[in-house]
Amino acid sequence: MTGTETVLGAPVERREGREKVTGTARYAAEYDLPGRAQAWPVPAAVARGRVTGVDTGPALALPGVLAVLTHENAPRLADPEDPTLALLQSPHVPHRGWFVGLVVGETLEAARAGAAAVRVTYEAQDHDVTLTADDPRAYVPESANGGFPAVTGHGDPDGAFAASASRVDVAYRVPPLHNHPMEPHASTAWWDGDRLTVHSSSQGTSAVRTELATMFGLAEDRITVLAEHVGGGFGSKGTPRPDVVLAAMAARETGRPVTVALPRRFLPAVVGHRAPTLHRLRLAADAGGRLTSLVHEVTTYTSRVKEFVEQAAVPARVMYAAPALRTLHRVTRLDVPTPSWMRAPGECPGMYALETAMDELAVELGMDPVELRVRNEPETEPDSGRPFSSRHLVECLREGARRFGWEGRDPRPGSRRTGDLLVGSGVAAATYPVLVSPCVASARALPDGGFLVRVNATDIGTGARTVCAQIAADALGVPLDRVRVEVADSGIGFAPMAGGSSGTASWGWAVHEACSRLTDRLAAHAGPLPDEGIAADADTSGTADAESPFARHAFGAHFAEVTVDTVTGEVRVTRMLGVFAAGRVLNARTARSQFIGGMTMGLGMALTEDSTVDPAFGDFTESDLASYHVPAHADVADVDAHWIDEDDAHLNPMGSKGIGEIGIVGSAAAVGNAVHHATGIRFRELPLTPDRVLTGLLEHAHPPGTLGT
After folding, report:
1. Measured between alpha carbons, how far is residue 17 from residues 464, 596, 633 in Å?
2. Tell me: the pLDDT tens digits for 72-114?
3. In terms of DSSP bridges, do strands 483-486 and 451-455 run parallel, antiparallel, or are they unpaired?
4. Do residues 579 and 439 make contact, with C-beta atoms less than 8 angstroms apart?
5. Which residue numbers are catalytic?
6. Which one, of 299, 276, 18, 361, lies nearest residue 150 by Cα?
7. How far apart are CA 469 and CA 508, in angstroms?
8. Diameter of the chain measured on Cα atoms
9. Per-residue pLDDT reduced to its tens digit, 121-175
């Protein structure tokens, strides 16, 4: 597309798409530099304890093995800001899978064989990896992730609950979940004197450079971090991970470029995961369906290495008008791998619980679940009292109901059946905050009539290059094909990571400002451009991160139709529809892809994705994609996404909100609510696997004490 009239919002193809489908796009592990070596980590084989001895002789005797690094001989590093990166610095083992060694080989095969030959002895200690809601060690943290208060409230929720006509008091469980990006975590590092260069599969090069500078005692300008192509992350690559530290360490030790590509089965223990969350929801309403009390209490775990508290009660502070409200987070320290960010942290599990409880309240009231949500629409943000910059949840619900055919739905559970299949439909709302961070960018007009825009954005498969080019072309008032964009190089300057649905808003703000300044400079320039062109820079510090008087959120509504096989217990999602209000959509093609990708990920959360920590061994039993089941194409029969044109002047120069995460928020609840509508059975633990559903069907058909009568 070359015109400027519709460049912003147009369904422009991704600029790197051809490179990816033809295999010419290079990822972090694919930089085959001269003399490059490969490294393979050695994970701890105890759930807690300390290393008492390491025999590296058998590994070093193997052909092709160059070095074995352990806590006994690895370079001493400064304490990192993130304690999960303090690798090979002590004999302490905080959890199973913690790396206790690294073998460097001429080839990947040599490194892997060497890692298998390393003999490690341990002094094992008692461990505990089991999360329970009544654990006496659970405590209320100072704050939850993102700096949110751990506890908030107003009114008298307990008194209002006791006095209300309709009430639900329910508990839900979301298991540990894993990010599992298509490209596992990998880094290739090499040193040139005291200069370090790293290709890393990361969601943000600035954060990686800062952490490496701290740990290796270097000035940041001595380090270059590149992330040209990243094969997904879903939050797990939002902060530096062990691969980049180990690669830099091994490269310094051997004097050669070194690649560390983590095997997939190692990922659950070392790159973060969504912590399990135990929810208790108490909702009460008057006879007209207006909430009188809302209480959301969450219990989760953190590791002993680093506190990470999933902020799952936070969305309850945003969603519905309730004169009495309380939210609470509690956390228990266990001998588990450190949890971390996963797509829509907090909102994803929190809205599953809240939106399921709202469905239960609708059943209790005998009210349509769409109407219950509409009836409890707040005028201002319930927790803060701030006005919304824009909020079109009701429009999303109404438009979704129209498109889905909700009006013809028989509200009676179990009322639709086709042979052995029960058919049901469900709805859930969605929300995600508008986040934005400072960023720098530059724009240069070139003598050949083109423009070069540089911003240290990271494209993790979302189309960041393309959308940044659209923002630039729009601000410059030029055809899109005249704009070239360079991204994912820490040398460009500071930029926030691709995460929190904040990337485009943050990078785009800086790009827009740089291009606007360049336009002004060009207007004041007479004659031909100099050989080096004319440039303008922007730094949005102090503006992008300025406090807003408005509550800024994206909203949406999910609708799902399912079939439940009464013979096998299998649940199939036959239709999914999402309708979203997310500000101005900057690229219709990439936006739709993000929405339906999130919805599909929520479908997996609802039906297939499950992880358990083995209490005896202390590790995740589902450690690869053979046992941790993500949705395949066959699982997604019909998924569609639409959006409402939303004009919000209180966001950024583009008027955009984030879209990368809201698609997953609420989609699991819509599926679960549809299963209840199909069966009349409320399942309160995810995922809804055939064994769990079939057991529920059998118990529903034959309550305890009735078999044989």
Report:
1. 12, 18, 20
2. 999 999 999 999 999 999 999 999 999 999 999 999 999 999 9
3. parallel
4. no
5. 661
6. 299
7. 9
8. 97
9. 999 999 999 999 999 999 999 999 999 999 999 999 999 999 999 999 999 999 9
